[in-house]
Q: What sequence folds into this?
């Protein structure tokens, strides 16, 4: 079992740990308190007092709010009950032309906008990008993920 101190876990979360160390830690058996340490670090970084129950993405958590379990951004913006799709309560930006797609996938890495768009979900409180999904043109009217 690999034993990690809090600073190492912070570096792992921030992506600043050298790859060989990160690989070793993530591929090994976990410390008994790894999950609690991870949640504690995340909780120390947010401005609100409610407990983080589970991180569900970068900047996004399920928290024990006064109204019940809810999805919340690092900034404190709430997206509603954790059992509902948080993306339905975001600002949605669609990259549907070559220029906007090439801002993130330059040159030959860009998809053909005639075939695919990129839907991005942003927090209404701080405009942080919380997630993205490719969206094939043929499925644009029926996809909710
Ligand atoms: Zn936010």
A:
């Amino acid at each position: 079992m690999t034993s990690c101190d809090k600073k190492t876990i912070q570096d792992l979360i921030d992506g600043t740990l050298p790859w060989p160390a990160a690989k070793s830690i993530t591929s090994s058996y976990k410390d008994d308190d790894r999950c609690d340490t991870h949640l504690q670090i995340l909780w120390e970084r947010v401005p609100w007092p409610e407990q983080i129950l589970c991180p569900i993405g970068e900047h996004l958590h399920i928290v024990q709010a006064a109204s019940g379990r809810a999805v919340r951004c690092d900034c404190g913006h709430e997206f509603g009950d954790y059992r509902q799709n948080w993306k339905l309560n975001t600002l949605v930006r669609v990259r549907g032309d070559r220029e906007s797609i090439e801002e993130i996938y330059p040159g030959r890495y860009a998809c053909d906008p005639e075939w695919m768009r990129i839907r991005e979900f942003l927090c209404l409180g701080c405009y942080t990008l919380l997630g993205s999904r490719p969206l094939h043109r043929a499925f644009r009217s029926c996809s909710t993920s």
User: Anything to note?
Assistant: Residues 73-75, 77, 123, 125-126, 128 surround zinc ion (CB under 6 Å). The CA atoms of residues 79 and 86 lie 5 Å apart. The first strand starts at residue 52 and ends at 57. Residues 1-45 form one domain.
